[in-house]
Amino acid sequence: MTSMVLRTHTREARVPEMFDASPSPGQTRAPTPPAAQPVPERSAKQRDSFFDNAKYLAIVLVAMGHSWEALYADSRVLRSLYIFVYTFHMPAFIIISGYFSRSFDMRPDRLKRLITGVAVPYVIFETVYSLFRDHFGQDGETGITLLDPYFLSWFLAALFVWRLTTPLWKVVRRPLPLALAIAMLATVSPAISNDLDFQRLLQFLPCFVLGLCLKPEHFRMVRTRAMRIASVPIVAGALAVAWLVVPHIDFGWFYRRDAAQEMGAPWWTGPLMTLALFACSVVLTACFLAWVPGRRMWFTSLGAGTICGYLLHGFVLKYTRWEGWYDAHWLHSPLGALLVTAFAVTVVTLLCTAPVRRVFRCVMEPKMEWAFKQDPAQQARERQHGERKQPVREKAGV
């Protein structure tokens, strides 16, 4: 239940708050100019290249993993890569989401952004996905139900619930052990309702809570040369283990959708697999982050559009499966797998670009001013800010 730019935080780049890569408390900022000099509005809030790079690379891994689902049955190598990537790609995405949810409280403006940036997109995409499936699909499901997330929309439903619980995790004494205990109990509780994909929501909960617990210095710790060197044998060992266990393991463990009993396993394996997968996902996420560049790259700006890439690539993926694109025999070969992977990377990259974000901003983060009361505190802050700026504007001759 999913990765997460030193550039101007413009209106064009605004995306749902779930992946805001603005500098976090404790990160280095440029010194504040003297009060007599007007500060350009666009320099007040800059994005962090590292997190935008991480988000883009994580969403690329998500798209790659999805593209292999129709091919891995023919290749042990591809199945091994599949479970290796699935061990950490969504956990990395969720950890970053939790990290940027640390400041969430029940303040009216933040609740408004939670509704417009998460709840409304969930309703829209769950509806559109259901209609898309009914028209093109062959999954045997029909109709629209907002309580049963279809395909990728589960993440929005989970993020809405996780973020609402953020104030609770900030006041409990041991948030991460508590979240792990809840996830472990979920794996032995097949009676948990499927509404809002609740089983997956609970089993991925520790990743979100871990993100809430992290501080900027934790990310600096994994971005060292020593960590990059150490990550090489760790990743090699993880790939070797994946190769060894892939014929014997149920892939359902990596999806976190079912309790142990629903997968035909003894109940006690659920808590053990919860701890094992969480440990593996944290270690591999650290290895992944160790190699994420911190400087501006050609793909850095795409990190602002990862939610577009995540939600929209599902339509391409499902359509190609339903229309039989994978039926070609030559695709089920090493060269075919490489071409499919390259296609998936290209598609998700294009879907993260600024033109796509502009087109879908109306559904990704609608303003909906008509639906909300005006916040008196926010209006007072804006008036006070305007009063402070006026003398500066006059002095500057504006």
UniProtKB/TrEMBL annotation:
InterPro entries recorded: Acyl_transf_3_dom (IPR002656), Nod_factor_acetyltransferase (IPR052734)
GO MF term list:
acyltransferase activity, transferring groups other than amino-acyl groups
Segments for region (Disordered): 16-44, 374-398
Q: Give residue ranges for domain Acyltransferase.
A: 50-351
Q: Do the record's keywords include Membrane? A: yes
Q: Where are the transmembrane segments?
A: 50-68, 80-101, 113-132, 144-164, 226-246, 266-291, 298-317, 337-360
Write down the superkingdom of origin: Bacteria
Keyword line: Membrane, Transmembrane, Transmembrane helix
Q: Where is the composition biased (Basic and acidic residues)?
A: 380-398
Please name the PANTHER family in this protein's record. Answer: MEMBRANE-BOUND ACYLTRANSFERASE YKRP-RELATED (PTHR37312)
- Write down what this protein is called: Acyltransferase 3 domain-containing protein
